[in-house]
UniProtKB/TrEMBL annotation, chain A:
Residues 97-326 form the ABC transmembrane type-1 domain. It is found in: Cell membrane. Belongs to the binding-protein-dependent transport system permease family. This is Peptide/nickel transport system permease protein. InterPro entries: BPD_transp_1_N, MetI-like, MetI-like_sf. One of its GO terms (cellular component) is plasma membrane. One of its GO terms (biological process) is transmembrane transport. The lineage of its organism: Bacteria, Bacillati, Actinomycetota, Actinomycetes, Propionibacteriales. It comes from Nocardioides albertanoniae. Keywords: Cell membrane, Membrane, Transmembrane, Transmembrane helix, Transport. The chain crosses the membrane at residues 9-27, 103-123, 135-157, 199-219, 257-278, 302-329. Its main location: membrane.
TrEMBL record, chain B:
It comes from Nocardioides albertanoniae. This is Peptide/nickel transport system substrate-binding protein. The lineage of its organism: Bacteria, Bacillati, Actinomycetota, Actinomycetes, Propionibacteriales. Residues 1-24 form the signal peptide. InterPro entries: Peptide/Ni-bd (IPR030678), SBP_5 (IPR039424), SBP_5_dom (IPR000914). Pfam families: SBP_bac_5. GO terms for molecular function: peptide transmembrane transporter activity. Belongs to the bacterial solute-binding protein 5 family. Keywords: Signal, Transport. One of its GO terms (cellular component) is periplasmic space. GO terms for biological process: peptide transport. Residues 77-462 form the Solute-binding protein family domain.
Length: 336, 549
């Protein structure tokens, strides 16, 4: 088992090196660059050339990449020019990560806590009004673009009704203490409960917008899975044995139906991170996604490189964990 | 009905949470009391304006720092600020500034002649990395101390004969001096803070810069001082400087909230959580006003032009260029595509700049004449790549693609074959500089009221990167004439010379085609009072208050 994990870890390092070079080269092949972003319209050819030289952008791509690797070894990931100018890109990633974790966790909680029970109920009451209307809702959830839903939510609940904040992570005038950058957690440990509550309110609208697609998928999978299980022989047997409806539903139907749902939830984590780019941008929610969006329009190379590589690393690690889990469940995988 | 009974408490809890949310919100209500909250489109890139080039950084710096000279509120004219008066010697190269004697920096250090010289010397004495970051110094003063022989600087030296006097010597007479000292980049910072904070310790790190302490703890003489930059929450909080030498700021706190998305800034304003934001989309102006907000339209201080790449010989015949200009229906474009208050341009500068030639007639829209001229020049069937930028909105072109479509249709109507190309903003400016397009749309917002700031930026060498005028017979003469005009000391004489040059540019040379001047707007809510819109987009927030306090 240890050898298997070690082998996979080595492969992972290889994947990351290749990936980082591809990202590095791809970014530099994109039109526009940090020099234009910094100098704007006023740049003369001489000032542009000077800045390119300072940034080392006049060197061949492989040399730039080697220098980049050399800097990374020394813990220097390059400074941001726009997202948080002057700050090291890795520091930005860790500054922004708590916000994204707060938001995606909240969205996932919404998606699961509504999607699973609703899917179950819809299956139990198949072809009733409840079933049909939830299917329509889930279709809308998948079909409506996140930015449009976000705009609509903000317009109704923030602008018109004034119930919830329009954007941001916390009301600036609240003057909260930030220790871990998990704003809710920070508010709880410092005893600034109003700040924690305020941060929670700021999560609601982006959380709902972000949860729309995972909710719809989880709902539909749960519904389909429950319908399938309800037809299984063991359910009929359980009924024939005279078990109570409660036991049948809880122990036999729900538990068995949950297997594919759990797999889908795992897959949704990835798409939540992707959805966070759009949602965070529209809600000015200072997370990794917002940083990525700003870095992309402003050609903030250091931040773009760091964030894309970090996202890739997360995927690779998750994959590794899944593989390890499979290897534990099914020993045959190890030898393949 | 076990399930519904289980769901009921959850529904009740949800409803309670929402109603609590409503209560909590109404208590906080965002910007109340004497806090002014302004929506910023981006994060400040530094708190040391010397190394900045972007408007969001300058907006914040302007509240924290003062310059020797400032622009008069609501105009592009200059007025005294930290310097009470200034006078040149006969040659126009030695300037004596009389300074205010009642100013201290927020760290208690006195503002005096020595402080002025310490600031200028610090700006001049940049290391290799600092030189590439200090774009404004490079643009206006040229070279730096350690390579003065290779690249001479406009700045020669500074002396402080007494507490309230600073004498600045420059290399040659130029109309831009001392006006250029009104630029926020050249703000006065505390010499002690600069020393302690290693002001010049900027370093290149990868494709960006890391800043020394001085750039994180700004120490100025302005109406506000920095309290906190909360990067995790995207807010910059300034507080009133109670020892300010001028009239104290009306608001106790000035908060900048970073909201990159324009429609979100608008929604925040409508929800009452910010008091204003800059550059509202012109299509929103009416509805913003209908909702009780104040859309302040600034006087246009910019130019939108259709630029030509004169490297290509097909544009070298004046008739071809005249034909292109006669083909453009600019009246219609301004009426249908540009915001209220926009005007048709007759030359490469707005009418508020000294040297504007008011007698110049606009080129008439005359497609027939255009076709005739093309025929005479033997350029029927002219083909050109014509480009526009995407994913950007500039004060002089709120929506590049609609402006482009109109211009392109005009060109095609006279038989010119247009190959449309576009690129995202940063790539676009790269390509224009590299001369990859035959024609492009671009513009300029003036830094201050000086003709050379417009004409010099476009047509002098080696700056002429957009029009490539060095490739045409008259290019060098135009560049030399403009430089000569800039060094005329007598203002009346200089103004007259620029008027002549403007006429010559538009009739004899026609290097490109001025299209329009557009007024950028700034919006504040109904309760916010005292904002004076600046044509230079250089608003001062000290006199601004919420709720008339």
């Amino acid at each position: 088992m240890l050898r298997f994990v070690l082998r996979r870890l080595l492969q992972m390092v290889g994947v990351m090196v290749v990936l980082s070079f591809l990202i590095f080269a791809w970014l530099r092949a994109l039109p526009g660059g940090p020099v234009s972003a910094i100098l704007g319209e006023r740049a003369t050819p001489a000032t542009r050339a000077a800045l390119e030289k300072t940034f080392g952008l006049d060197k061949p791509i492989w040399e730039q990449y080697l220098l980049f690797l050399g800097r990374i070894v020394h813990g220097d990931f390059g400074a941001s020019i726009r997202v948080q100018a002057g700050t090291d890109a890795l520091e930005i990633f860790f500054d922004r990560l708590p916000g994204t974790i707060e938001l995606t966790t909240f969205a996932l909680v919404i998606a699961i806590s509504i999607g699973v029970p609703l899917g179950y109920l819809a299956a139990r009451r198949r072809a009733t009004f409840l079933d049909n209307s939830s299917i329509v809702v889930s279709l809308v959830g998948v079909a409506v673009p996140v930015f449009f839903l976000a705009f609509l939510l903000k317009y109704v609940f923030a602008v018109q009704l004034g119930w919830l904040p329009v954007s941001g992570r916390q009301t600036p005038t609240i003057d909260a203490t930030h220790i871990t950058n998990f704003f809710i957690f920070d508010g709880l440990i410092t005893g600034e409960y109003d700040a924690a509550w305020d941060a929670f309110l700021h999560l609601i609208l982006p959380g709902i917008a972000l949860s729309s697609i995972p909710f719809a998928i989880i709902f539909r999978i749960t519904r389909a899975s429950v319908l399938e299980v309800l037809d299984e022989d063991y359910v009929r047997t359980a009924e024939a044995k005279g078990l109570t409806a409660r036991v049948i539903r809880g122990r036999h139907v729900l538990r068995n139906a949950m297997l594919p749902v759990t797999t889908v939830i795992g897959l949704q984590v990835g798409s939540l991170l992707a959805g966070a780019v759009l949602t965070e941008r529209v809600f000015s929610f200072r997370g990794v996604g917002d940083a990525l969006a700003v870095a992309s329009t402003e050609r903030d190379y250091a931040v773009l490189q760091m964030l894309i590589i970090a996202a890739a690393a997360v995927y690779v690690v998750v994959n590794l964990l899944v593989d390890v889990a499979y290897a534990i469940i099914d020993p045959r995988v190890r030898t393949r | 009905m076990r399930i519904s009974r289980r769901i009921l408490p959850a529904v009740a809890a949800g409803a309670l949470a929402l109603s609590l949310a409503a209560c909590a919100q109404s208590e906080r209500g965002g910007a109340g009391g004497s806090t002014l909250t302004f929506g910023a489109a981006g994060a400040p890139s530094t708190f040391d304006p010397f190394y900045a080039t972007d408007g969001e950084t300058f907006r914040i710096s302007r509240q924290i720092f003062d310059t020797l000279i400032d622009s008069k509120p609501g105009t592009s004219e200059i007025e005294p600020a930290l310097a009470e008066s200034w006078e040149p010697d006969e040659s126009g190269t030695k300037w004596t500034f009389k300074l205010r004697d009642d100013v201290t920096f927020i760290d208690g250090e006195p503002f005096n002649g020595e402080a002025v010289c310490a600031n200028l010397e610090r700006m001049y004495d940049q290391g290799a990395d600092g030189q590439t970051a200090a774009e404004y110094w490079g643009s206006f003063f040229g070279g730096f101390k350690n390579d003065a022989e290779k690249d001479p600087s406009l700045y020669k030296g500074c002396e402080a004969p007494d507490e309230t006097t600073a004498v600045i010597t420059i290399d040659r007479a130029t109309a831009s001096f001392p006006t250029l000292l009104s630029q926020t980049s050249f703000s006065m910072q505390s010499p002690k803070a600069m020393e302690e904070g290693d002001a010049n310790g900027i370093k290149a790190a990868g494709e960006g810069f890391t800043f020394p302490e001085n750039a994180k703890n700004p120490v100025g003489t302005g109406a506000f001082k920095l309290e906190k930059y909360d990067e995790a929450n995207g807010t910059v909080t300034l507080v009133r400087n109670d020892d300010y030498w001028g009239e104290a700021a009306k608001s106790e706190k000035l908060v900048f909230r970073i909201i990159p998305d324009e429609s979100t800034r608008r929604q925040e304003l409508e929800a009452g959580s910010i008091n204003g934001y800059d550059l509202p989309n012109p299509v929103d102006w009416n509805s913003l006003e209908e909702n009780g907000n104040q859309v302040e339209i600034r006087d246009p201080f910019n130019i939108l032009y259709l630029g030509l790449n004169l490297k290509d010989k097909k544009f070298h015949d004046l008739k071809v260029r005249q034909a292109i200009y006669h083909a453009l229906n600019r009246e219609e474009l301004v009426k249908s595509q540009l915001p209220e208050g926009a005007t048709v341009a007759t030359q490469f500068m707005p009418d508020t700049v000294a040297g504007y030639n008011k007698d110049l007639e606009p080129y008439a829209y005359d497609p027939e004449k255009s076709k005739q001229l093309l025929k005479e020049a033997g350029a029927e069937g002219l083909e050109m790549t014509f480009a526009f930028p995407t994913e950007v909105s500039r004060p002089y072109m709120p929506d590049p693609s609609t402006i482009y479509d109109a211009l392109r249709a005009d060109l095609e109507a006279v038989g010119i074959t247009v190959k449309a190309v576009s690129a995202p903003w940063t790539a676009y400016t790269d390509n224009v500089t590299a001369g990859k397009y035959d024609a492009h749309i671009l513009g300029w917002t003036g830094d201050f009221n000086d003709a050379y700031n417009f004409l010099g930026s476009f047509f002098t060498e080696p700056v002429a990167n957009d029009f490539k005028t060095s490739n045409i017979s008259w290019g060098k003469k135009l560049s030399d004439d403009l430089k000569a005009a800039d060094s005329i000391v007598d203002e009346a004489e200089r103004t007259k010379r620029y008027e002549e040059l403007n006429e010559q540019i538009m009739t004899e040379y026609l290097p490109g085609f001025p299209i329009s001047h557009s007024p950028p707007a700034i919006v504040v809510d109904a309760d916010t009072k005292g904002l004076v819109p600046s044509p230079l987009t250089a608003e001062d927030f000290a006199p601004v208050s919420v709720g008339g306090e």
